[in-house]
Amino acid sequence: MSSDPLEIPDVLKPIENLLKGVTVMKPGRVVALLEPGDVVKAYVALKARYGETGLYFSTLVATDLKDEGKIRIDYYINVLEKNQYVVLRTYVPRDDPRIESLLKEAPAALPGECEAYDLLGVVFEGNPHLRRAFFVPEEVAEKDIFPLRKDAGV
Amino acid sequence: MTEEVSKVDKVVEIPMTVEIPVGPQHPAVHEPILIKVYAEGEYVVKAEAYTGYNHRGIEKLAEKKTFYQDIFLCGRVCGICNAVHADCYVRALEHILNKEPPPRAKYLRTLVMELERLHSHMLILAVTAEIVGFDTLFMHMMRDRELIMKAKEIVTGNRVLADYIMVGGVRRDLNSEKMDKLKKILTKVEPRIRYYWRVFEEDVTLNKRLVEVGRLTPAQVTSHGLLGPVARASGVATDSRYHDAYDAYAEVPFRIVTRKEGDCMARSLVRFEEMQVSLEICRYILNHLPEGEAVPDERRLPRRFPEGEAFTTVEAPRGELTYYVMSKGGVNPYRVKIRTPSYNNIINTVPFYVGHMVADVPAILASYDPCISCMERVTVIDLRRGTRKKVSVRDLARGEA
Predict the structure, then answer these.
(1) CB A135 to CB B51 under 8 A?
(2) pLDDT 10s digits, B289-325
(3) In chain B, at which end, N or C, are there fewer CB atoms within 10 A of the end residue's CB?
(4) Cβ of B334 and A134 within 8 Å?
(5) Where do the structural domains in chain A lie, given as residue ranges?
(6) Which CATH number fits domain A10-142: 3.30.460.80, 3.40.50.2000, 3.30.70.260, 2.60.40.10?
(7) A27–B95: do the CB atoms touch at under 8 Å?
(8) Distance between first and last Cα of chain B
(9) Looking at the predicted structure, is the pLDDT value of residue A140 above 90?
(10) What is the dihedral of CA B204, B207, B209, B214, to 10 degrees?
């Protein structure tokens, strides 16, 4: 990972005004740092520029950064026109992880959001399908344990 | 539910696996999944997915094991496409280590992954035939699939779980004798694949059951993140071999197979044509295998990893498979995220069953290439009589439920 500021790559021009920073993840993925409230706006702007069939939502990765008191949420989007992976990266507080759901704009985010809620406790506001025990066993969900948190004791 | 009872005659529950005791055959959904289909008469009016029956916690387990142990763990996410899982994970490690495998190893990895695509496609096409009632075709295709399994054994030493890919290369090299055997197998299997391809195109029953069934538009494919042959059969040219040009795909000539129809038949025909492309890739590799070392000295590999992260993709037989690996330094990964293609293809396609006939559900499900053990048991609930009975997917597909 490089933390040096980079020039804004072409693929991110449509969301230039929302960017808080740009980095690169190996191999050659452009990472756009955003405020949590701007992720949906950024996706909408990318979709408006590249078209509904010009990109697709690929993967949602939520990571517990316990030492920093944050949970990092990465949205991986494959921009087919540019043949380029874009990562929308944002951070939410670990003690109250909430972010607007991307579901209305990208139905493909459904399993990723449900999984991140079930395993890490990230609440995607506006997603009506969130429920515990989507993946984890019910006895774990009943104890209010989020297994992928570093202090889950699993 | 009470309101639904008054409107709905029958509820069909399809527990699709589930797993995968012998290695999740379903790469994406690491566990069993239940798709509930609500039918009105013969037509589906609502569908829901329920997951979590056998979550194995592989991502959490991966954080507890070392980077190297996780190669074997990742290889066991899926029984059928285990080499692509290992390749995707290992390439993420190589990016973090700044390590480049030698060209010969890249070609051999590609060879094994294409053999996997061949036998995976043959399996799902055989199962598609079985589900629509063409058992003889299933038997013949599975017999010929054994040839590919043998080829994989010749290269990796194992028919199924290869454990072939390692950081910096592969575990075994090929000699000229093995290469001759592989060429003979490819020569033998090619006409068989062409024959089955023709059967799919011309057989009346297969055409009746698959053509114009389960149609998906390009916009549905991209908005729902559908991948692999499912996307390509609807005209969306997405293929990680092209997008990322990993391993030897930057050098080996191949083409992305697409069709425009977007129905179950198109998905089957895309797989047939992809098998043809895979055969060409395998043949090219055997004729152009670079000289040099392919097997690294394991003792020289670093035990501790530097800080870093990588996001790698691979075109598994079912579509794009992604791995995210994060290292904070040390011997264990801080985070490993696996997103298998079926994860998208099965969960996200649930709304698209609506409007189809119940008997088409298994054919559509098979066309998405899910884990077969998931579909083996189906429960039909008659809401008027309050009875439940279990039937096989095959009987359901034949309208005998």
Answers:
(1) yes
(2) 999 999 999 899 999 999 999 999 999 999 999 999 9
(3) N
(4) no
(5) 10-142
(6) 3.30.460.80
(7) yes
(8) 23
(9) no
(10) -170
Chain A partners within 8 Å of B51 (Cβ): 134-135
pLDDT in tens, B341-365: 888 888 888 888 888 887 788 788 8
Is B237 touching A (CB cutoff 8 A)? yes
Residue type present at position B365: L
Cβ neighbour number for residue B291 with a 10 Å cutoff = 8
Q: Which residues of A touch B334 (CB under 8 A)?
A: 63
Q: Which residues pair with B122 in a beta bridge?
A: none
pLDDT digits (tens, 9 = 90+) for B91-136: 999 999 999 999 999 999 999 999 999 999 999 999 889 888 898 9
CA distance A134 to chain B (A): 5
Peptide bond into A27 cis (omega under 30): yes
pLDDT of residue B5 exceeding 70: no
Give domain limits for chain B. Answer: 2-53+343-397, 58-339
Between positions 180 and 199 of B, the ones with CB within 8 A of A are: none
Nearest CA in chain B to A52: B219
Provide ipTM, 2 decimals.
0.94
Question: B171: which 2 tokens?
Answer: 């575990």
**B58-339 maps to which CATH number?**
1.10.645.10
Give chain B's mean pLDDT.
84
